[in-house]
Amino acid sequence: MNNLKATREGYVDGILQAGRENSRVVVVEGDVSRSIGSASFGEEFPDRFFNLGASEQDMLCEAAGLALEGFIPFVGTYGVFVAGRAWDQIRTSICYMNLDVRIAGAHGGVSVGPDGATHQALEDIALMRVLPNMKILVPADSNQTRAAVLASLEADGPVYIRFGRNPVPQLYTRDEKVKIGRGNLLREGDDITLVTCGAMVSLSIAASSILQDRGISAGVIDMVSVKPLDRELLLGQAEKTGAVIVAEDHQVTGGLFGAVAETLALEMPVLMDTVAMQGSFGASGSPAEVMKKFGLTTSAIAEKAERILH
């Protein structure tokens, strides 16, 4: 499927379905409901919708209180703010007590383009991944985002769901299911494995096709569950190919590459490289311009794969 749709639309679909099926689902947001789409939930369920303004720390503390009273709060705002400004509240008020709070980090990565460096979440996965009890889902399209929202309802404890703003190719159908702790093997490969998530999944699939034309068989893993990682899938493909490229729209430190590298270093060392943000802030521009500026492209993935194998 190659039609384009923003992943945030899947978040809206997910919380609406969750709200219709479970009266304990509530939404807490930071005055960006029109931007991320959660205003639709407030229109349908006004008594279960709480706008606390630009007050991220208060949002997470209120969500903790709601969870303690038996509700299932979804806290939604831009990922750079919810992960950065409210990290202490997430750590102490939510993760420490392992509360059922779902945190929606919108505008993930540089692919949000015109929002610029201050609004581009590039460290959020690392900040969330280090926290005990936290689970992390980074869906690749709107259908998978919807599925991630619904999958989070089955989890015990906190879940961070990261999604983007700009339209991306639809890779999955509406009946897609997400399971925390499981990734998806989208393509089989014999020579190298591309491990990816979020906005980089479609680019990795395209890179796999380029590599195929060059005589290189590249498998593609959509690691939608960054934490817990699908160790069985990762180790199986790493053993098969002996080489791994990790592609992500995040800092090279602490994100998906960190999770993959830590796992392989301890259990199955293989040749590795990465396509990611190399310790720099983002920039303003169209999504395509910004992705190109920082080397987050299909050609960069293919070139890294060729280089590691030769």
Description:
The protein is of the alpha/beta class and 310 residues long. The chain has helices spanning 7-21, 33-36, 39-44, 56-68, 79-85, 87-95, 124-129, 142-152, 201-213, 231-241, 256-267, 287-293, 298-309, and strands spanning 4-6, 25-29, 49-51, 72-78, 102-106, 135-137, 159-162, 167-169, 184-187, 192-196, 218-222, 225-227, 243-251, 271-277. The protein contains 13 helices and 14 strands. The strands form three sheets. Strands 3-2-4-5-7-6-12 form a seven-stranded mixed beta sheet, with helices on both faces. A five-stranded mixed beta sheet has the order 9-11-10-13-14, sandwiched between helices. Strands 1-8 form a two-stranded antiparallel ribbon.
